[in-house]
Design goal:
mainly alpha, globular, Poly_Biosynth_Transport, cell membrane, PG_synth_SpoVB
Length: 537
């Protein structure tokens, strides 16, 4: 029995690792593909795609982070008792529930596409909204299959399906927009082709999961289920409440983008900006989204590795261990988030040229860079609170942040255009973080980080900023007529990342922000220990 328990625990850890790697790969792909997309379609083409993207982001949250998690929990409970009839019952009730949700989502978007497009201020988006509505018909089946396999402690199908979905989606999107534009179609028709790529990704995920289901010989139980202890009302309650809270907690970046999709273009036009220029401005502003997403993924990749330790400690009732690891997660996130935000803000102009061909909107992107720190901290705290079984706090924080973003857009965009939108975004993320920070600190009843450690981190980041400014000044002096070119900007940006990143890491490590024991818990921590303590032997 002990061996079986140990084997199951190892399987859970391996599964968690597989899902973590899959999530990291898909988020990196999701951030990077938008760069060549903008290069192919231009700022207006990018604006068109980004206006509709939040609808797809909502579906991804439902089919990846929300309902599969809830379904897997219920199935895992029945699997321990080898209650296959109960598992079948859970799957059937869950499928009926999700089909209703999917049909509601599909109907709202498909039937209401014209109204939503008018609300956004651009009636030509209606076709794209109708195309993306079909993704709501796919998500129930994807969610059920992922939830089943995860509940059976088999994370491989979910992980592979996520990567397959993102890979097929990215390839289809880029090929569609390139071929359609080259063959003389309008920018909106090319956008519709790109949106179809999202459906292709969903079909790829569903195809793989279905094939795996039948390959393993899995079948619905055909017996009439009367003996199972599973209550249908409990299943629906868990799907409704836990599914909602988990989905909402993972929609922070998407819902803030959704506010911009609904309001920014129309606010720019109502403030007197010509429609074509407003589309270009929104497209330039949207350049910041992949940068925020990429920075956030990198910043949270390290801090979130500690969350499973926190969940395990909670089950053991080890309060001291929980507090230690929460503080460490928070510190890691501040170090990487602040470094990424400050570093990107410094080299934003060459980075903008390198990625998007010109330096349009560099000031706005520099402001948006600050969001990386607050989104990283907020997402880390969300994961910690979920590990501690506090599901509602992230939902309230997000609702406050969305309301704040909407009100600030209405106030700031007419005065400062997309600079106002960038400021509104950063303040909204700050608000979400502040609410979550207060909730977590109140929960653990102690400070999350000392003032001395904050001072050391800030000193390291300020020193990096000074170094990067000096580097940019020196490198510009030796441009020899290449300044402003994409090649020179790429060199400046990439060398700047290497120089600034290495200096910052060394400054943080030498500043003893982390102890030797803490470093040993982090990825690449052993190498950092060897570097720091090589003279102690």
């Amino acid at each position: 029995m002990a061996l079986e328990s140990e084997s199951r625990t190892k399987g859970i850890w391996r599964g968690a690792l597989a899902l973590t790697i899959a999530a990291f790969v898909t988020k990196i792909l999701s951030a990077f593909y938008r760069i060549p997309y903008q290069n192919i379609a231009g700022d207006i083409g990018f604006y068109i795609y980004q206006q509709v993207y939040p609808f797809y982001g909502i579906v991804i949250a439902l089919a990846t982070y929300g309902y599969p998690v809830v379904i897997s929990k219920m199935i895992a409970e029945r699997d321990v008792e080898q209650d296959e009839e109960g598992i079948t019952y859970i799957l059937k009730i869950s499928l009926y529930f999700l089909l209703i949700i999917g049909m509601i989502g599909f109907s709202i978007l498909y039937i209401g596409a014209d109204w939503i497009a008018r609300l956004m201020g651009d009636k030509e988006l209606a076709l794209l909204i109708q195309i993306i509505s079909f993704s709501f018909l796919l998500f129930p089946f994807i969610s059920i299959l992922r939830g089943y396999f995860q509940g059976k402690n088999n994370m491989v199908p979910t992980a592979v399906s996520q990567i397959a979905e993102q890979f097929v989606r990215v390839v289809t999107i880029l090929l569609s927009v390139y071929v359609l534009l080259k063959s003389g179609h309008t920018i909106y028709e090319a956008g519709a082709g790109a949106i179809f790529g999202s459906l292709a990704g969903g079909f790829a995920a569903l195809l793989f999961l279905t094939a795996y289901w039948f390959k393993k010989g899995t079948r619905w139980k055909k017996t009439i289920i009367k003996k199972t202890k599973v209550d249908a009302k409990k299943i629906i309650f868990m799907l409704f409440v836990q599914g909602f809270t988990i989905c909402m907690a993972n929609m922070m970046l998407i819902l803030i983008q959704f506010v911009d999709a609904l309001s920014l273009f129309s606010l720019l036009v109502s403030a007197g900006m010509e429609e074509q220029m407003a589309k270009v401005s929104k497209g330039i502003y949207d350049r910041g989204q992949p940068l925020i997403q990429l920075g956030t993924v990198i910043a949270t990749a390290f801090s979130l590795t500690l969350v499973p330790l926190i969940s395990g400690a909670r089950k053991r009732g080890d309060e001291l261990f929980i507090k230690e690891k929460i503080r460490l997660s928070f510190r890691v996130c501040i170090v990487i988030g602040l470094g990424a935000a400050a570093g990107l803000a410094c080299i934003i102009k060459p980075t903008n040229i390198m990625l998007f061909k010109d330096d349009s909107g560099s000031l706005e992107l520099a402001i948006l860079s600050g969001s990386i720190l607050f989104t990283s901290l907020a997402l880390t705290i969300v994961a910690i609170l979920q590990g501690l079984e506090h599901q509602w706090a992230p939902v309230f924080a997000l609702l406050i942040g969305v309301l704040m973003k909407w009100l600030l857009n209405i106030w700031l965009v007419p005065m400062y255009q997309i600079i106002g939108a960038a400021i509104a975004t950063m303040i909204s993320y700050m608000t979400v973080f502040a609410f979550l920070y207060y909730t977590l600190r109140k929960n653990i009843k102690s400070s999350l980080i000392s003032k001395e450690i904050i001072f050391r981190i800030v000193v390291a980041s300020v020193a990096m900023v000074v170094l990067l400014q000096f580097y940019l000044w020196i490198s510009s002096k030796f441009a020899f007529g290449w300044q402003g070119t994409r090649l020179f900007a790429s060199m400046q940006a990439l060398v700047g990342v290497a120089v600034g990143g290495c200096f910052y890491i060394i400054a943080v490590l030498k500043g003893k922000v982390f102890s030797k024991q803490e470093l040993s818990l982090l990825p690449f921590g052993e190498k950092a220990i060897k570097f720091l303590f090589k003279n102690d032997r």
